[in-house]
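Example 3.
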Amino acid sequence: MQNLIKPLVQKNDTKIILVVLDGLGGLPINGKTEIEAANTPNLDALARESACGLHVPVAYGVTPGSGPGHLGLFGYDPQEFQIGRGILEALGLGVEIKNTDVAVRCNYATIKDGIIIDRRAGRMPTEQTKKLTEKLQAEIKKIDDAEIIFAPGMEHRFAVRLRFPSALEHDAAMIPDTDPQKEGKAPIPPTPLSKSAEKVSKVAEQIINKAREILKNEEKANFILTRGFAVMPHIPTFEDAFGLKALAVANYPMYRGLARLVRMETPAIEGTVEDEIIFLKQKYNDYDFFFVHVKKVDSYGEDGNFEGKAARIEEFDKLLPQILDLKPDVLMITGDHSTPALMKGHSWHPVPVLIKSPYVLGGLCSVFSERECTKGELGIFPTVNLMPLALANALRLKKFGA
Amino acid sequence: MQNLIKPLVQKNDTKIILVVLDGLGGLPINGKTEIEAANTPNLDALARESACGLHVPVAYGVTPGSGPGHLGLFGYDPQEFQIGRGILEALGLGVEIKNTDVAVRCNYATIKDGIIIDRRAGRMPTEQTKKLTEKLQAEIKKIDDAEIIFAPGMEHRFAVRLRFPSALEHDAAMIPDTDPQKEGKAPIPPTPLSKSAEKVSKVAEQIINKAREILKNEEKANFILTRGFAVMPHIPTFEDAFGLKALAVANYPMYRGLARLVRMETPAIEGTVEDEIIFLKQKYNDYDFFFVHVKKVDSYGEDGNFEGKAARIEEFDKLLPQILDLKPDVLMITGDHSTPALMKGHSWHPVPVLIKSPYVLGGLCSVFSERECTKGELGIFPTVNLMPLALANALRLKKFGA
């Protein structure tokens, strides 16, 4: 897709806003989905005059993680650009990733006589993980020429970032998991599967050995297991692919991290959705493209809290006029995937989307919902097509052929 | 598609039923299609609460044969996995095919002074073909190390299966047709185009020579022409691709043969659609996936018998509650292609489909028909996507990415 689009890109002064209500799509409980149950007069009015449809993040039947979900929205085919597990874990814990870095997911584990007897160190409390990880960080800061950063996660989980002095090869993290996947087995030593992974593997080995020494007196968390070694995906920048100077307005680290993979600007902001919109307004003159992320819609869906999810959608609906007041040339409102409260998790269902622009048919959907969007002019289409539609509606694409 | 899906497959205890009403899709005569004209209260009620849509078996405008139609439903891209004509012919005549076999379509023909003067031996009657083919079988049972099976077909047609002692290479049947395609030409001797086709070619040559000797006193059918040499396609098994233990419930040999290509279990059953459903119930605890084939819908379509086709759909509708009583986790009802009575044959039109599962929107289609299915939540999509949707609805697919 990008090979087709890039030569067509032309610049102008238009502004494009992409609002991602994370996990927006849902399923009916007592006949209505979360969006249908929510009172959303502003979204509904907008849907009536917009181009509507549903997009499929990865493929029919495939449930996307947050990484693939966002990459698709940003115009990158998630099957082509796959993000390593270590990178996603690090991004989720707020660790910044560059092309000089390797990221790894880690577990505290219990080892006895060289055998892993508990891969999760008794699912130790998050608070203890925080303390131990600070201890590791205090004693392990640099190994060979790599700067080491530890980031504690939930329960027994944490992430490590290895930052080298210069950009890494795409195969620099080809190192299988050291986690043997089963208790009763010895951990697997880090093993480089490519030439460029050798120096990374050596650093990983030293981290594991030093950690073992530091943790030797811990009752349970006396070892670390590593999984999902990954470098930053080699991915064209958003500006290079689409000619847009882009700002991420996201109050959760994971989503700033995903935006950073394609080199959007990602200032660390905090606060509510309203705070995000205040920030958007402040920065509105400085960028062409704005990715505004609303996390809590997904969070309530994940919890199976139907009313909570609907309430978060209503909350956004009340703020929507503030975004409309900016009069963006193109406004897209959608989700990165569906998170039906019914399923308490991400799902494969296509995600409703509306595109407001002067160049749409409109008049096909009476409200903004999964079911009404099936009637829309955009049909059901792969998510990766959304960015070309945005550019087209912003008159930022030249004609193809003569 | 399978490269994407296979790593996501997870197993559980769910049951999936795929009902194929062969040639289901139709076109209007006096304003209504066959399904619209049929009285189908059970299908209609199911459509109202199901995910509905239309699927495209091969590509827009392309009319599928039964082979590609079913492979698509089974989750195999019919453009990628093409089934040789000899194999399809043999399957259609009830001949079992394994990976040790070469199958060939044959014609009786008339030869004079080494020149084919009638490629169809005067379109001889089916009854005579049966007799002659039995005669060939009586005298040709084994050639070199190949066991030879003859199967008579309609008019001048029959099939031959060459069964070798061990599995064949994928290129073992690279032998062009011996049929010169035009009267007034000499038959082409079997010519191997690959190393592994040499032994097959030698056997074919001997069959042709022996047949000529056996048939030398026939007035018209004094020679045989061979076409479509083929081995079983190299195709992942259904269980390997989707993690499902599958049973084919099909009372016609062709459809058991197609299911056998992907290694579903294919017991030979006979009788009516009701007999098929009785068999389905008997075997319901032993499998994860059930392919139930209803042939007669297509047969009446092929005959141009609009009322007959509608009646067969009504007949299935009356039996549908027996399938619903099994409470499958996922039930799909569709066809392998359209067979409009108006056209007296297969057609390229997308095929209506419904998916019943707890994880659908529903409420978008008032009845089950081609026209109402255009309003459904599944849209118009390639048939090969149906299996991933089935797996997703059965919660048998893990998340893609994190």
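Chain B has 14 helices and 13 strands. Chain B has a mean pLDDT of 96.
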